Amino acid sequence: MAALPADARVLDLPVTARRRSGPDAWILELGLPEAWPRLRPGRFAMLAPADGRGPFIPRPFSIYSQPAPDRLDFLIQVLGPGTRALAALREGETCTATVPLGNGFEVQPPERPVVLVAGGVGSAPFLLYLEERAAAGAAERTWFFYGARSADRLYDRERFEAVGSPVRCSTEDGSLGFAGRVLDDLAGALDRGEVPEEARFAACGPEGLLHAFAAFARERGLDAELSLETYMGCGVGVCNACPTPTDPEGPWGDWPWVKTCVDGPVMPLRAIRF
Ligand SMILES: Cc1cc2nc3c(=O)[nH]c(=O)nc-3n(C[C@H](O)[C@H](O)[C@H](O)COP(=O)(O)OP(=O)(O)OC[C@H]3O[C@@H](n4cnc5c(N)ncnc54)[C@H](O)[C@@H]3O)c2cc1C
Ligand code: FES
Fold first, then answer.
1. Which of 62, 153, 238, 260 would bridge 242 by S-S if both were Cys, CB 3.0 to 4.6 A apart?
2. Residue 126's CATH number
3. What total of structural domains would you count in the chain?
4. Nearest ligand to the CA atom of 242
5. 83 and 164 belong to one structural domain
6. Does residue 259 form part of some domain?
């Protein structure tokens, strides 16, 4: 089983800026004390305001963007006390971050097609993934299916579109792109041969979407991985709050549970019972 990543550390980081995204989310920009190498997409941080505002337990967030070697940005949808406290941080205030955590996505070699599927703020780990693929010359072999309830919840859509890969938006209220659920758009695209079935598929989003995606991918025999948004207490493998059951046929064999925070959050679909 995996251990805490060797590069993880606890830092008090200044908020350098924050901006609104959609009706209920913020992008929080944090300054790092020195230049960091680029992080794998899909890794995450445990964040909490440094002054103790908000709940005692920090909350997990995907690393959204690394626009400079000394900066990390997070896309945070406000849901409850933890996200409300983070969204209330102002420029110059300090955020305590345990970062970088988790395994992240194994970015596929440029020749392999990749299909990314996100619902709402589940898009957060995919900006880095798209940027990495574009840097490797594989933008046109990478598709991003981005779904939400309504157009204003396709957070930072223009930023994803600017990377250069095909971005296919869907909204349940029909306000932008395909009218309906993101998986229906994906199913149509696969049926019409607009995206290749032999691609590596990766999904992130709310539990409902992940369960539907897992069933869809199994039915069609897709090579898929999920970035799980399991509740977390510590994020570092100590509290056992984040168990995911494993598939005995998968790489963990008879080991029945793994910890999403240190063994994931990215899991091959064939490795877990979900
Ligand atoms: C690895 C990882 C990466 C994540 N990345 C992001 C990200 O980039 N951006 C982002 O906005 N959120 C992300 N999340 C989810 C985020 O951590 C939760 O929304 C946050 O912890 C909620 O805290 P809260 O105190 O505001 O709300 P809580 O009071 O804890 O919850 C408010 C409501 O949301 C529900 N809820 C909270 N967390 C979850 C969850 N994980 N799964 C299902 N329902 C939940 C609760 O049941 C409750 O109804 C991520 C989660 C994980 C595990
Ligand atoms: S969140 Fe504590 S062990 Fe995973």
1. 260
2. 3.40.50.80
3. 2
4. 2
5. no
6. no
Structure tokens at 37: 């190498």
- The kind and range of the H/E element at 129 are helix 126-135
pLDDT at 3: 81
Shared domain for 92 and 131, answered yes or no, is no
The model's pLDDT over 229-251, given as tens digits with 9 standing for 90+, comes to 999 999 999 999 999 999 999 89
3-state DSSP assignment of residue 19: strand
Q: Residue 47's domain is classified under what CATH number?
A: 2.40.30.10
Mark which of 55, 73, 101 sits at the end of a domain.
101
The residue contributing the CA closest to ligand 1 atom 25 is 82
pLDDT value, residue 2: 79
- What is residue 175's predicted lDDT score, i.e. its pLDDT? 98
**Signed CA dihedral, 175, 181, 42, 198: sign only:** negative
Q: Please tell me the number of the ligand nearest to residue 263's CA.
A: 2
Q: Which of 21, 57, 79, 126 to mutate to test the pocket of ligand 1 (most atoms within 8 A of CB)?
A: 79
CA 212 / ligand 1 centre spacing (Å): 19
Query: Quick check: 93 and 15 in contact, CB under 8 A?
Result: yes
In this structure, the answer to whether residues 155 and 195 fall within a common structural domain is yes
What's the rounded Cα separation, in Å, for the pair 74 and 65?
7
CA of 11 to the centre of ligand 2 (A): 19
* Domain with 194 in it: 114-229
